[in-house]
């Protein structure tokens, strides 16, 4: 029996979508207003899901408190009220698109979750725009 547990979280962050190797005009054509040199922000919503067998001793797939602590340490503390381009080392040379952000988050959490469990991360950039990553 495999069961999925999920935990919701959120963080607020600013970013700018652009490539350093492109001209402003090229960045503007591809990324539009998201290329604003003064950045822009989002209220990101996050759902982290862990799937695995129920432990017969505890009745848990994973203790939800442990999952909450991992999310807080790896995502909320690292990203909340930050400028992703300037304050988060993972985005120094990586364009902080929603797609790239969700992969970075997944990788940060994956290293803290036992390999026997499947991991899925859903990141809402807006209530209508979201991305999902389950690993490779």
UniProtKB/TrEMBL annotation:
InterPro entries from the UniProt entry: 6-PTP_synth/QueD, 6-PTP_synth/QueD_sf
Documented EC number(s): 4.-.-.-
Species this protein is from: Flavobacterium seoulense
Top-level class of the enzyme under EC nomenclature: lyase
Name of the molecule in the record: 6-carboxy-5,6,7,8-tetrahydropterin synthase
Transmembrane parts of this sequence: none
Catalytic residues of the enzyme: 34, 81, 125
UniProt keyword annotations, A-Z: Lyase, Metal-binding, Queuosine biosynthesis, Zinc
PANTHER family: 6-PYRUVOYL TETRAHYDROBIOPTERIN SYNTHASE, PYRUVOYL TETRAHYDROBIOPTERIN SYNTHASE
BP GO annotations: tRNA queuosine(34) biosynthetic process
């Amino acid at each position: 029996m495999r069961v999925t547990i999920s935990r919701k979280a959120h963080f607020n962050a600013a970013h700018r979508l652009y490539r350093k190797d492109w001209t402003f005009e090229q960045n503007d054509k591809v990324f539009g207003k998201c290329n604003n040199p003064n950045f822009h922000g989002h209220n990101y919503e996050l759902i982290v899901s862990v799937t695995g067998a129920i432990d017969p001793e505890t009745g848990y797939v994973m203790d939800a408190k442990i999952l909450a602590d991992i999310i807080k340490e790896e995502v909320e503390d690292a990203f909340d009220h930050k400028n992703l381009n300037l304050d988060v080392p993972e985005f120094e040379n990586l364009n902080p698109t929603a797609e790239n952000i969700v992969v970075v988050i997944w990788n940060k959490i994956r290293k803290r979750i036992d390999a026997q469990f499947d991991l899925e991360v859903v990141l809402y950039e807006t209530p209508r725009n979201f991305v999902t990553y389950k690993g490779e």
